[in-house]
């Protein structure tokens, strides 16, 4: 595909540890986040804005070129990451496994700072119970109300939720 194009493809990604176990203990989490950041920085078609998470899941804020297949990208990062983390901590046995699946939400460039802040503040948001269900989801929608809410895109200055509060009001 030609590199003669313009694109703004911003994504929020999330995936969990196997069975959402608290596998990302502080040293494993630090190594994992650094590994993910280095891997993406080394790629030529994905730009990482932020990486964060808690002891049982990872969030990324990235921009991708239109030539990137999202599912392939996530599969490669998850697979190589767990392999390298387990090699790094092999004296402890298998320390990191990922649950199958992931969540991905696209958003407009105007929301980039809010999404990056959301990813950075994961621990505090989870502790305070102020997480956004859309950005935490990795499974199918469970109700018609959730499905209707999810059909609205995340872009401009609003997050696609039934309450339609502005992003900056939610930070």
CATH architectural designation? 2-Layer Sandwich
| Biggest sheet layout | 4 strands, antiparallel
Computed CA radius of gyration, to the nearest angstrom: 16 Å
CATH topology name: Alpha-Beta Plaits
Please report which band the strand proportion falls in: under 5%, 5-15%, 15-25%, 25-35%, 35-45% or over 45%: 15-25%
How many distinct beta strands? 4
**Which percent range fits the helix content?**
25-40%
Task: Report the end-to-end length measured between terminal Cα atoms.
Answer: 38 Å
Structural class: alpha+beta
Q: What is the N-to-C succession of helices and strands?
A: EHEEHEHHHHH
> What is the name of the CATH superfamily?
Transposase IS200-like
Total discrete domains: 1
Q: List the total number of helices.
A: 7
Shape: globular
CATH level 1 name: Alpha Beta
Question: Spans with pLDDT under 50 lasting ≥5 residues?
Answer: 155-171
Q: Describe the strand arrangement of the main beta sheet, using strand numbers.
A: 2-3-1-4
* pLDDT averaged over residues: 86
């Amino acid at each position: 595909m030609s590199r003669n194009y313009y694109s703004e493809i911003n994504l929020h990604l999330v995936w969990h540890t196997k069975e959402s176990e608290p596998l990302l203990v502080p040293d494993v989490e630090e190594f994992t986040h650094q590994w993910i950041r280095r891997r993406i920085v080394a790629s030529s078609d994905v730009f990482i804005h932020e990486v964060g998470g808690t002891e049982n899941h990872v969030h990324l804020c990235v921009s991708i070129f239109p030539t990137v297949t999202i599912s392939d990208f996530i599969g490669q990062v998850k697979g190589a990451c767990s392999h390298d983390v387990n090699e790094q901590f092999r004296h402890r046995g298998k320390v990191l496994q990922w649950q199958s699946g992931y969540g991905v939400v696209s958003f407009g460039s105007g929301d980039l700072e809010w999404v990056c802040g959301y990813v950075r503040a994961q621990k505090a948001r989870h502790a305070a119970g102020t997480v956004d269900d859309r950005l935490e989801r990795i499974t199918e929608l469970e109700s018609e109300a959730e499905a209707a809410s999810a059909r609205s895109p995340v872009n401009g200055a609003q997050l696609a939720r039934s309450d339609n509060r502005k992003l900056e009001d939610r930070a």
